[in-house]
Amino acid sequence: MHRLRVRFRRGVELRYISHLDIMRLWVRALRRARVPLAYSEGFTPHARVSLAAPLSVGVTGEGELMDVIATRPVSPHWFTDSLNRHLPHGMEVLEVYPVPPSAPSLQSQVRFAHYLVELATDKTEQEVQLAISHLLSLAQLPWHHERDTGARHYDLRALIEEITLVEWHRGRCVLAMKLRNDERGSGRPEQVALALGFTEHPRAIQRTRLTLGPAPRTGR
Q1: Is it true that domain 109-212 has CATH number 3.30.70.3190?
Q2: Tens digit of pLDDT for each residue in 192-208?
Q3: Which end of the chain, N or C, is less packed with Cβ atoms under 10 Å?
């Protein structure tokens, strides 16, 4: 088996596509590009394709990661060229490189997600900076949000690594956020924005990249 790591972008054209539909899109494109996909065993074999971390509906991504398992060696250049011809507008392969087949799963290596968040605001630049400083000074920030299964309670502060004001104009601003995304929890940019006092939902959320780290050890 041969394992390829794919870095790709998902633009505004596909920002409202669900994770399940995105996976179907990839498998369909890989088949049309004649990539020699490996499949799982069992009664319902599935193509061995896995994304690092699902993107929420409405969020774009400029540095998304995916692993593809092939049955034989594949040239990264051929893979990129062939696959891009079969992808819809808004999806583009940016880089492909081999990784050891025995390496830990891509999902287990994700540590942080980096975002650019555009917000409408009537706050001054200084007020935005003060709100960021106050939030980052907190030891804890008990939080909850409603889900289909009920309210989820957690410490939002523990999921925030960095927040930076990168752009401010009257009526709008852009924040850079580095949020935890691992087995302990995943930070949501819209929740962080709400905690900072921005009452309107973000105008745009772009995940710029994912930070990987060593997979957690299991057992002794």
Answers
A1: yes
A2: 999 999 999 999 999 99
A3: C
